[in-house]
Amino acid sequence: MSWNAYTDNIVNSGCFDKAAIYSTDGAVWANTGSLNVSPQEFQLIAGGFTNASSVQMSGFHVENVKQFCIKADDRSIYGKHEQEGVMCVKTKLAIIIAHYPAGVSAGNAANVIEKMADYLISVGY
Hints:
Helix content is 33%, strand content 34%. By secondary structure, the chain is of the alpha+beta class. A hairpin with a 2-residue loop joins strand 5 and strand 6.
């Protein structure tokens, strides 16, 4: 299975309209829906997994849109902007970043992305 199959599954869940998987060093492994995360945005998100206060206090940006941080720990960083949001989950070797549009339950979206992360972890990624 190609890496894009994983991001396709995230988007096909109906909870997200864009999803990408990056290596922890920032290389793009897969992208569905043209999620454009700049290197600077990625570095801030990646740093948030080891220093949650860096995103908790000032939020973070994805596609030049500031996200208000609603959760940040060593596994997951969730942000919200108006009725939309971004969820980022770290696995052993990757970071999944996905955008959910207005009208989607954040709880349902979290369930989808966290299960994908659990699966990737279970197969060594």
